[in-house]
C-alpha cells in the first residue's frame, strides 16, 4: 500500500522556538518514518505579516532550514524545500482565489485576532486576508491526505476542504479533502506566560546558547499566588511546570510535590529546568554547528527538495488548469 501523503510548513519569521519544536517539528520527524512527507519553509507566508521588513528574511530562511534538519527532518525520508522555489504554489493560489467567497475569509477566527495581536503593523492587505487561500493551495497542490496542525489551525483546514469541494463541484474531481493530524501537545507558554510566539517576543529559540536559555528561563513567570518561598505553590497554574510535563517527565512528580510543600523555591525550579533544556537541545546544537560549516550541503538539500516537490506540484497544477479550461 502507498504511504499517506503529509504536508506541513513553517514560517521563517525569526528563529524557530521550543513551541515550534514540540508543536510541529518533532511531529514531522515522527511522521516521516511512515508517511510520504512534504515539509516546506513558508517564505511567502512570512510576507503576509512582515512584508515591510525583509532585511533578515534570507538569514531567517537559512536558519529555519538548519533548525529543521538539526532537529531530525531527514532529506532522505522527507521532501524539504523553500515555498518560493515552487512557483506552482502561487499559481494555484491565484486560481483558487477566483472561486473563494470573500465571506469565507472574513469569518476565519484568526483573521481579526491576528490583526489585534499585531496591531503595530498594517495588516489591511489583500495578501493577509487571502493567506488561508495560499495555505489551501500549499496543501492541495500535493493532494495531501493529512496535515499536522494544532487545534487553532482547524478552521483553516476546514476552509481548505471547503475550497476543495467548491473546485471539485465547479470543474472536476481533482482534490481530495485533507484531514487533520492533531499535534500531541497544547501551546507551550512563553517566558511571560502567554502562548510562546515570536510576535510576543517571549520565545526560547531552538538555537539559543546555554547562557541565553538560563537567562530566559530565569525571568519566566511562575505561580502568581506564590510570593514568598515559604508560600504553598500551585504547579498546575505555573508555566514553568508545564515544561516539566513535556521535557522532564521523570522529574515532574517530585517537582510538583516539593512545590506544593514549599520545600522547593521557584529559583531552584528554574535552574533545574534550564539545565534540562540545555541537555535536551544539545544534540540539535551539535547538528546545527555541523550544518553551518556546510553551506553548499544546505543549498543542495533545498534545491533537490524543490525539484522533487515541483515534479508533484506541476502535475497537479496541469490537472487543475485543464479542469478549468486553461490548457
From TrEMBL:
CDD domains: TrpRS_core. Its EC number is 6.1.1.2. InterPro entries: aa-tRNA-synth_I_CS, aa-tRNA-synth_Ic, Rossmann-like_a/b/a_fold, Trp-tRNA-ligase, Trp-tRNA-ligase_bac-type, Trp-tRNA_synthetase. It catalyses: tRNA(Trp) + L-tryptophan + ATP = L-tryptophyl-tRNA(Trp) + AMP + diphosphate + H(+). One of its GO terms (molecular function) is ATP binding. PROSITE patterns: AA_TRNA_LIGASE_I. It is an enzyme of class 6 (ligase). Pfam families: tRNA-synt_1b. L-tryptophan binds at residue 138. ATP binds at residues 11-13, 19-20, 150-152, 188, 195-199. GO terms for cellular component: cytosol. A motif ('KMSKS' region) lies at residues 195-199. A motif ('HIGH' region) lies at residues 12-20. One of its GO terms (biological process) is tryptophanyl-tRNA aminoacylation. Keywords: Aminoacyl-tRNA synthetase, ATP-binding, Cytoplasm, Ligase, Nucleotide-binding, Protein biosynthesis. It is found in: Cytoplasm. Homodimer. PANTHER family: TRYPTOPHAN--TRNA LIGASE, MITOCHONDRIAL (PTHR43766). HAMAP family: Trp_tRNA_synth_B. Catalyzes the attachment of tryptophan to tRNA(Trp). Belongs to the class-I aminoacyl-tRNA synthetase family. This is Tryptophan--tRNA ligase. It comes from candidate division WOR-1 bacterium RIFCSPHIGHO2_01_FULL_53_15.
